[in-house]
């Protein structure tokens, strides 16, 4: 009997162990299997903002968080009748709210909304700031309680709690601000506005002479007024708490790109070569700057990594392709530079190439990635059948949003989100 008893005990133990393994396997599968990333989502606009992707559709505004692959509905409404053609998003420094600017044939609207739920905080009367004339240029955050807003003729700082507003830029002569001259639509009270951390001032570009539309000026401004700091110059992107990038055009029409330190007032030349595209300079996920130089019609394209902390440059020949242009209507070769990201001891440059297909009798887009460690160029995505491709890299360097337009003039597009680890695996 004792032998049968212990045999029964062993059988029960084996059965329980088997059930436990099944349970564990199921748990493992649940952990490994993640929801798929968005694919072929129809949208009007899509834009990264730190850890999320804001996007606007005809049914509202959404935020997708790639880290946990969740989507929040931030505005639920039927927007199809508004005929929106573009939207811009700006996330507050504390991530609690965001600015939503929408554009349509009927005008522009600006609203501040809760970043976690479907709730409006403040709707601004854009027409009042335009004072009957002048388009809205852009809007962004000064701090968690103040925003800036620029039009063709003015730049304001607005307290979103009290409603107090201060005009930072000087008032223009009435003969200009009330004119209906078409040239005046190219003027600006402030664009490419930059707010650096730990700085109270705003840095922005302004074009105020209707007879010299190609002569921008960089101003430094705050609630006390504005001051010229860099004539014949245009702001591009912030770098850190004390510097930003700007460009300057020579009399011959050539651009040079510089780093400007707001404390020392010193400038450092980054390149005197053509940027592809002309304003294509981006921050990497490890705080460095990346850009590509080369003529849009072909030749050698050089990728550059610049370290603002040490002022060191690294150069890479990322693309060199000879082409026969005899059968093409145009000679454009380089498409867009999307940016670069760093993983371990390597950088990946992302860009697109436009090539004319004789068989299809049209241009096709190829999306390419260059691995600096492997010195290898790879093609990713099957986008040749799409009319126009636009890519945007998130700040972590982990994800890319790929926008697919049937035509570049279309308001709507389809977008996919891809993980950049796919590029690293492909280039091994």
Radius of gyration: 26 Å
Helical content band: 10-25%
Count of β-strands: 32
Structural class: mainly beta
Approximate shape: globular
User: What is the distance, rounded to the nearest whole angstrom, between the alpha carbons of the first and last residues?
Assistant: 63 Å
- Note poorly predicted spans: 1-5, 11-30
Considering the chains and any ligands shown, give keywords for the structure:
four-stranded antiparallel sheet, 428 residues, globular, mainly beta, disordered N terminus
How would you summarize the topology of this molecule?
Elements: H1 2-32, E1 41-43, E2 45-49, E3 52-57, E4 60-65, E5 70-76, E6 84-91, E7 97-104, E8 107-114, E9 120-124, H2 126-130, E10 136-143, E11 146-151, E12 155-159, E13 165-167, H3 174-177, E14 188-195, E15 202-207, E16 217-222, E17 225-231, E18 234-240, E19 243-249, E20 255-261, E21 267-271, E22 281-283, E23 289-293, E24 299-307, E25 312-321, E26 334-343, E27 346-357, E28 362-371, E29 376-379, E30 388-393, E31 399-405, E32 413-419, H4 421-426
Antiparallel strand pairs: 1-32, 2-3, 3-4, 4-5, 6-7, 7-8, 8-9, 10-11, 11-12, 12-13, 14-15, 15-16, 16-17, 18-19, 19-20, 20-21, 22-23, 23-24, 24-25, 26-27, 27-28, 28-29, 30-31, 31-32
């Amino acid at each position: 009997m004792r032998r049968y008893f212990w045999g029964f005990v062993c059988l029960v133990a084996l059965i329980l162990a088997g059930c436990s393994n099944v349970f564990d396997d199921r748990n493992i599968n649940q952990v490994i299997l993640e929801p798929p990333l968005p694919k072929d989502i129809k949208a009007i606009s899509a834009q990264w903002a730190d850890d999320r992707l804001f996007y606007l559709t005809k049914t509202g505004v959404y935020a997708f968080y790639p880290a946990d692959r969740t989507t929040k509905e931030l505005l639920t409404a039927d927007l199809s009748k508004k005929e929106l053609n573009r939207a811009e998003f700006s996330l507050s420094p504390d991530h609690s709210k965001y600015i939503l600017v929408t554009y349509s044939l009927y005008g522009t609207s600006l609203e501040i909304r809760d970043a976690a739920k479907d709730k409006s905080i403040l709707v601004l009367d854009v027409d009042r700031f335009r004072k009957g004339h002048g388009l809205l240029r852009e809007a962004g955050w000064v701090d968690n309680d103040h925003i800036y807003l620029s039009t063709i003729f003015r730049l304001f700082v607005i307290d979103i709690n009290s409603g107090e507003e201060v005009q930072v830029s000087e008032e223009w002569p009435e003969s200009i601000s009330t004119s209906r001259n078409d040239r005046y639509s190219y003027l600006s009270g402030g664009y490419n506005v930059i707010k650096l951390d730990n700085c109270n001032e705003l840095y922005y570009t302004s074009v105020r002479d209707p007879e010299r539309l190609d002569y921008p000026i960089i101003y430094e401004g705050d609630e006390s007024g504005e001051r010229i700091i860099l004539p014949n110059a245009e702001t591009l992107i912030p770098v850190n708490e004390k510097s930003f990038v700007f460009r300057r055009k020579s009399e011959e029409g050539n651009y040079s790109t510089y780093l400007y330190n707001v404390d020392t007032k010193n400038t450092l030349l980054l390149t005197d070569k053509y940027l592809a595209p002309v304003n294509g300079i981006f921050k990497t996920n490890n705080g460095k700057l990346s850009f590509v130089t080369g003529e849009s019609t072909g030749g050698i394209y050089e990728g550059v990594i610049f370290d603002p902390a040490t002022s060191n440059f690294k150069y890479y020949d990322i693309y060199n392709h000879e082409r026969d242009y005899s059968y093409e209507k145009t000679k454009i070769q380089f498409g867009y530079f999307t940016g670069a990201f760093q993983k371990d001891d390597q950088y990946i440059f992302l860009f697109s190439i436009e090539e004319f297909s004789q068989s299809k009798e049209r241009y096709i887009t190829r999306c390419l990635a260059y691995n600096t460690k492997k010195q290898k160029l790879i093609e990713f995505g099957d986008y040749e059948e799409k009319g126009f491709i636009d890519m945007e890299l998130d700040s972590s360097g982990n994800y890319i949003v790929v926008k697919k337009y049937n035509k570049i003039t279309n308001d709507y597009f389809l977008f996919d989100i891809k993980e950049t680890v796919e590029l690293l695996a492909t280039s091994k």
